[in-house]
Amino acid sequence: MSPAILELVLVTVVASSIPLVIAALGELVTERAGVLNLGVEGMMIMGAALGFAAAYTTGSTIVGALAGVAAGIAMAALFGLLTVALAINQVAAGLALTIFGVGLSGLLGAGFVGLKRDGAPQLNIPGLSDLPFAGKLIFGHDAFVYLAFALVASVAYWLTRTRSGLAMRAIGDNHESAHALGLPVRRTRFLAVLFGGACAGLAGAYLSLAYTPFWAPGMTAGRGWIALALVVFASWRPWRVVLGALLFGGATVLQLHAQAASLGLPGQLLSAAPYLATIVSLMALSIGVRRNGAAPAALGQAFIPPR
Amino acid sequence: MKNVSIKLAMGAALALGLAALSGAAVAQEKLKVGFIYVGPVGDFGWSYQHDQGRQAILKALGDKVETTYLESVPENDSERSIEQLARTGHKLIFTTSFGFMEPTLKVAKKFPNVKFEHATGYKRADNVATYSGRFHEGRYVIGQIAGKMTKTNTIGYVAAFPIPEVVAGINAFLLGAQSVNPGVKIKIVWANTWFDPGKEADAAKALLAQGADIISQHTDSAAPLQEAEKAGKLGFGQASDMSRFAPKAQLTAIVDDWSGYYVERTKAVLDGTWKSTDTWDGLDKKKVTMAPFMNMPDDVKAMAEKTTADIASGKLNPFACPIMDQSGKPAECKGGAALSDAQILGMNWYVKGVDDKLPQ
Amino acid sequence: MRIDLEPRPARSLAVDVAAPILALAAAILIGGVVVWLLGKSPTRAFSVYFVEPLLEGWSLQELAVKACPLALIAIGLSYCFRANLWNIGAEGQFVMGGLLGGWLAVATHNGAMQGALGGWWIMPAMLALGVIGGALYALVPALLRVWLGVSEILTSLMLVYVAELALDYVARGPLRDPKGFNFPQSVTFDDVARLPFLAEGERLHLGVLFALVALAVSAFVFARTLFGFEVRLVGEAPRAARFAGFSDKRLTLAVFAISGALAGLAGIAEVAGQIGQLQPKISPGYGFTAIIVAFLGRLSPFGILVASLVLALTYIGGEAAQVALKLPNDMTRAFQGVLLMCVLMADVATRYRVRIRLGAAP
Questions:
Q1: Is residue A236 part of a domain?
Q2: Does any domain span residue C277?
């Protein structure tokens, strides 16, 4: 493989892992607060539909991205009402949210099927973007990519280095003690859920605005579920989400390149490779590392303040 | 006994109600035509084109016909959906995906008075007809265009699943390309999906990275074509004219046009001449049409137009013998001067020059 | 604004009955408004969606056929969920059961492997293989959890994709019908490899009985056996369970095996009953829908029975609405979501008094 092709491959790997990174990062925060939201796919597809609709109507990618975020937040607010305020089982509510989102996005997006707009522009710094090998890899993406990395860095910093980040983690690990310490358990969780929705909506908008700039029903094609898996794979650490998304995106993209280069392996095995790779690397990580990764201890449990 | 009498009473009431409703205004009941789609009508590909055909029926026969469709019907749970249409008075039902074959036959057995039309299958019954399009004819045309237009002599091909129709499409495409450019190479990527825009785009990117300068696709979304446009390369639309997605990249598109057939078959039911048939036509009957030829020099355009016309008139057969298989042996020629329809419909081998091992 | 939940001291029958009815009413109201906005008649939609499917023999039967895999999988999942274990990979276990059992049907096609025995043993063996396939597949995430502490949520979900791809591979490859023009499906099963239908020419198959038996047996297990108690104790008070000498590892394996076995049974029942051949896809998402069924049914066998029928009704009514009112498919999907959320919300009211206070928190 020549360096030029390798660079192209790596650029593709980065681009294809971005929606996973953004959505998984949001879910990571939600889960760190102790809430498991299985509705990522539903929030994501709503972000894709409304993001495209807004961008098409106004002609602005930024407005589209914001609309995607807003759609994700609205869906997450519904989920928060159900699970945080009303203490409904999170697994059931999340699945219902996905069914709802997939249907609603089809309804709302129906008028935008088959329309086209230009994709989000790629950063091009004359000189830098043309550097051999690393030029395109570092300076050749669209704004979403840089935003994603900025988000990861800030979340990583916020979770470990700030008071409020610590407080949220405490809530996710033991809501009773956190409550006893006077931390606002339910308000924090609600906000964490909203953040997860915002990220999922943004990830969806990335798909319909930048990655494949059009709207089609069902276009997220299961990426929300992969994002969920990545959070666990990353054992709830932000930078590991990036690593996992790159591995996953990489395995998917590499198998396509392997075919293009005519290596001759059965397609289904190649398609299964990313999933198997995730399981295997998860096992490898688990051996020797702390048991059960670093799952927030109160994950999935509703909190009802004692009276 | 009690049940029966209740049913009778209900039936009588219903009949009275209907009679009151219809009165003299509706002398003749409209023919109800039903459609089962495998995807959403908004896929802008396969199901979208079938829905265009449905709308053509309404346009042509709207005063005599009423249509209904069920979309995104899972193939493995379709028997109920088909029966639902049969039970609600639909007298002609189109089931538009291969996986609907067995369920269609099962329901047809129970409703001998309903006519069924199953797309792309091979099992028929007295009230089940089959139909499909010779899409490989269009693939031959775009293969020729690709053969002429490529500068790197490498063409990328994003394929969905190794079923005979897709394999025949690859073969016809390559034979077309070789007919004008013997040195041309084709690289194939199996996406293992009909519809996943992101993955289809990644597949196209992989092919572009491997030096392909033309992207052909046999998956449903416009993503591969858009990828070609983004890279400043060329490509073809799939199932419908996708030039709006890639005005600078689309050379042409193979358009599935079901309208003529659907109108014709609906008319046949209306005037009582419907028979169970197997219809497999293409450019000749305009079931397969080519979107406008664009982004190419005039001589290539003229060549493509001539090839299209020659295939339509029967002068040119994309699978005219002799055809060498991948190992260089001539394929058996069961159709006289060309491969037989059965050979094409069940195609599971590559012609010479395909740089890929057929997934089995 | 804040919402407070006060546990109800005792469950009240009136609330238990009224809550789901109110939920249904709320969902219907929301759906009705949307239908009205789309310019269709809400009353007609209501009748087509909820009433007419319950009046006809045919649609009642279809209701049972559709509810069957949902109930079978959900009752299996209720073992896991009661023990606070998150098997969300039932879809994969369903597929594996169908694949393994279906393999035998293809292998014995046209009298192959039958010899002097005849074909009587094929159907029971297929069912057994379905059960084993599902159970073994469910044991993978269970073992990974017990041995390595790997989260079962992730592994069971990942294995869904692997199972789907495996089925896709065999249906297009080794088990493909050699006379089927290379189309991706197996031979249609012989009659000895088809699950018997309860009536000639109908679609109601023996699988429906399996579901009823599984529900009845589980009701007994949960109410009357030590094992049922153990499952609940581990779920609700793991520390107490450990003091009581229960091994949570053994229990993890057991509940996963049970839920996998039932999902696998549902899979082979679907393949040998409803479909009659192997195809690249055999499930329209039953494994995931069943998770909702399990929760809607509050993890109780009777509740699961009702919930599976209600969910089946939303599919069949949804299709009827598409046909009769030409409502888009997405509308019926979105309504399904609304209905589920309303029912989940109503469930809260049965356990808590909900108080909504306006103004700042005290």
A1: no
A2: yes
On whether residue C344 sits in a domain, the answer given is: no
Radius of gyration of chain C (CA): 22
Candidates 3.40.50.150, 3.40.50.2300, 2.40.50.140, 3.40.50.720; CATH matching B28-133:
3.40.50.2300
- Mutation test of the interface with chain B: which of C165, C172, C182, C197, choosing the one with the most B Cβ atoms within 10 A? C182
Q: Is residue A254 part of a domain?
A: no
Q: Which amino acid belongs to residue C209?
A: L
- One-letter identity of residue C51: V
Contact status, residue A30 vs residue A37, Cβ threshold 8 Å: yes
Of the partner residues A8, A114, A213, the one whose CB lies closest to the CB of residue B226: A213
CB contact under 8 A, C283 and B102: no
- First-to-last alpha carbon distance for chain C, in angstroms, is 10
Beta carbons of B226 and A212 less than 8 Å apart:
yes
CB-CB under 8 Å, C283 with B76: yes
Which is it for strands B154-159 and B250-256: parallel, antiparallel or unpaired? unpaired
Q: What is the pLDDT of residue B149?
A: 97
Unique residue bearing structure tokens 């969606």: C49
Q: What is the pLDDT of residues A117-150, one digit of tens each?
A: 877 776 666 666 666 666 667 766 788 899 999 9
Residue of A136, A262, A268 to mutate for B, most B C-beta atoms under 10 A: A262
Side chain identity at residue C27, one-letter code: A
B-chain CB neighbours of A211 within 8 Å are 197-198, 201
Does the N-terminal peptide bond of residue A238 adopt cis geometry, omega within 30 degrees of 0? Answer: no
Contact C319 B164 (CB under 8 A): no
> Does residue A88 belong to the interface with chain C, where contact is any CB pair within 8 Å?
yes
As for the ipTM of the complex, it is 0.88
Tokens coding B167: 């394999």
Against chain A, the chains showing at least 3 CB pairs within 8 Å are B, C
Residues spanned by the domain of A120: 19-221
The tens digit of pLDDT for each residue in A143-158 reads 889 999 999 999 999 9
The residue behind tokens 């006519």 is B115
B-chain residue closest to C320, CA distance: B84
**Cβ within 8 Å of A, C 96-135:** none
Chain C residues with CB under 8 Å of A100 CB are 333-334, 336-338, 340-341
Number of folded domains that form chain A = 1
Contact (CB<8Å) B205/A8: yes
Residue in chain A nearest B240 by alpha carbon:
A114
Range ranked top by mean pLDDT from B239-253, C148-162, C179-193: B239-253
Domain boundaries, chain B: 28-133, 135-256+289-345
Q: Taking Cα atoms as reference points, which of C116, C142, C155, C126 lies closest to residue C270?
A: C126
Instruction: Classify residue A269 by burial, with Cβ atoms within 10 Å: 0-12, 13-18, 19+.
Output: middle
Give the 3-state secondary structure percentages of chain C, helix then strand then coil, rounded to 5. Answer: 70, 5, 25
Q: How many CB atoms lie within 10 A of CB C280?
A: 21
Residue B24, pLDDT above cutoff 50:
no
Residue A209, min C-alpha distance to chain C (Å): 22
Which residues on C lie below 8 Å from B40 (Cβ)? Answer: 329-330
pTM: 0.88
Asked whether the beta carbons of residue C295 and residue A89 sit closer than 8 angstroms, the reply is: yes
- Report which residue type is found at C241: A
Task: Read off the pLDDT band of B14 (50, 70, 90).
Answer: very low
C335/A286 CB distance under 8 A: no
- CA distance readout (Å), A90 to C30, C300, C335: 23, 18, 20
The whole domain housing C261 covers 73-110+119-298
pLDDT tens track for C201-236: 778 889 999 999 999 999 999 999 999 999 988 888
- Residues 6 or more apart from B266 whose CB is under 8 A from it? B31, B33, B57, B61, B65, B92
Minimum-distance CB partner of C348 among A88, A282, A286: A88
